Amino acid sequence: MCNHCLEISRRSMLAGGGALAASLATGVAQARVRPADMVPLIGPGFQPTDTDEKGLWQLMDRAEEEISGSNLLIKDPELVSYLQGIIGRVGGPAAKDMRIYLAHIPDFNAMMFPSGFAVIFSGLLLRMRNEAQLAGVVAHESGHFLRRHMIRSWRDTRRKSDIFAIGAMAAGVAGAGAGVYLGDYVQLAQLGTILSLFAYSRAMEAEADAMGARLIEEAGYPPIEMANVWDQLIGEEEASARYRRKRRRRGTLFDTHPSPTSRLADLRISASEVTVAGKPYDSRRGHYLSKIGSIRQMLLEDQVKMNDPGASQYLLNTLALDGWNGLLRYYEGEVWRLRNRAGDDARAAQSYAVAVAYPDAPAEAWRWHGLSLIKEGRSGEGKAALGRYLQMKPGAPDAPFIRQMAG
Amino acid sequence: MRKFGIALALAASVAASGCVQSRQYADVQFTPPSGDYRLLVMRPDVTVNSLTTGGMSEPRADWTEQARGNIITALRAEQADRGGKVLVLARRNELPNVTADEIADLERLHYAVGNSIALHKYSGAALPTKRGKGIEYTLGEDAVSLGRRTGYDYALFLYAQDNIASTGRTALQVLGVAGCFIGFCAPSGGSNQFAYASLVDLRSGEVVWFNVLQTGSQLPGVKFGDIRTPQGAAQMVERLVGRMKPGREVREAAEKR
After folding, report:
1. Considering all CA atoms of chain A, what is the largest pairwise distance in Å, rounded to the nearest integer?
2. What does the pLDDT read at residue A260?
3. Which residues contact A394 (CB under 8 A, 6 or more apart)?
4. What are B25's strand-pairing partners?
5. Is some CB atom of chain B closer than 8 A to the CB atom of A164?
6. What is the pLDDT of residues A34-52, one digit of tens each?
7. What pTM was computed for the model?
8. S-S: A121 plus which of A109, A405, B6, B226, CB 3.0-4.6 Å?
9. Under 8 Å CB-to-CB from A127, ≥6 apart: which residues?
10. Distance from B5 to chain A by nearest Cα, in Å?
11. What backbone torsions phi and psi does residue A42 show, to the nearest 5 degrees?
């Protein structure tokens, strides 16, 4: 029994020591990369010439064929060409080579594939307050391509796994020859190898952030907006966690990305570094809102149905920093209504009542305003509101039902 | 890309010993096509990787192109021997009256069905209701409609992957086996192949025959036919689709006679 205890403690000590050694060597917090050092590593019309990169691109061509044909994509031509235009502005030398796809997934995410196509999630468009913020994310993804991150990280992984395989084999053979067991050291080396892979991945994310800050500055967007994106994300995660009485996740040694907090800090410094005093910057908020106007209701609808009231409320309040409108007020009501705790119906009713005071209130706001009024016993006003709903959306799927209620 | 799911599930289910394994399932009433039939081969999904010293599979574009060409040639020759007329799709938009999206949808549907076959027929999660029934899966109306519009009797889906050990990997294997002599045996996997083929009857929409082929060895230097060469590709095609057996009921009926 005790022998076993001893064995466990020796192992855990080794593992702990390994993790400590690796964290000292690599550091969870990455050193900030200076935007000035980030020069693109490829020019326009880049095509791979090395065998490993050619193989990767061939694989990616098949992936792109699948993704571009996926029924998860939002294919609205105007919206897609708008996004393509943004990658054209912040894509550096590869601006004309990169492709962008918009996937209908209500999460905050964007990714760049090795052969130069990016996929952004619709949830990202909901969270951006202006074009500069969106451009910041797109520029970060362009940074991955311009700095050749995928092939570099593939080569890094290959090199480290080669070294580990040879080292483990050599240790085994040498240990067997000398009659000692080196298994613990091999495990330690394996942990070290894995940790250094994650550290490499975080270093590349830091590079992409720095490259992105530089690219959006060159395109005339205020560089600080990139930091604001992270500020908003941290706020959203905290609000979501607080609502569920949990704490926001902290960074670990196994993260592929630097923690949002350290990214925010680094991006703020980088932004002030690249900002040119006296140069006019434009976040193009109005332009952004007019472009995503056609899908904004769908984006909000997706979000409130995520069953994450903390995050939804935070998002609505953040978007409303630029001014409340009927759409935002209506979805504020929806967050309450769907949460359905004691008193939430009254809160929702209040939001619907405010929503319909705006000229841009969606038809659904009138529907719920009407239903809430009837519930309160104000049936005359309620029926009038339902009438307004039917007037705006005569072909609604529930129109016959509502017509019956409206009398 | 999406085929890797099936590949992984199947690869895990077959032991990594040094041999050639194939296991086929057929619909109980399946008779291998012969005589005058028309076969549509969906784009063969072929990948050739170089196996790095550390054991990663690195895709190789030139080898893949070579192998795909060889496999298509070998498949044409094999089917011609049976008497069938074959069209091998190179692109999704090749068929008249059929859009690329329809072909893509069918490929995706087959991917899901194939995954199910892999899980329940090869990975050990057998379904009690499907015991002794051979293979009982269908692609449904979409496949029938494709057959009706194009006049093809069968569709063949094919996936092949060949991992070729690099010099470093082979050296590591040699060291691992050599270590056995001093008490440290650490054999590691070398060159290996994995392939599957699935035959769909376009008149009924049913998957009537499914076969998985796996080769691999932990002994350095052992290869099982290199699909980058015409001979190796012909060997793989023969192992994969050359030995179609009829379904159980058809076999039993033949034995009674």
Report:
1. 94
2. 82
3. none
4. B210
5. yes
6. 888 888 998 899 999 998 8
7. 0.81
8. A109
9. A108, A229, A232, A233, A236, A315, A318
10. 14
11. -130, 160
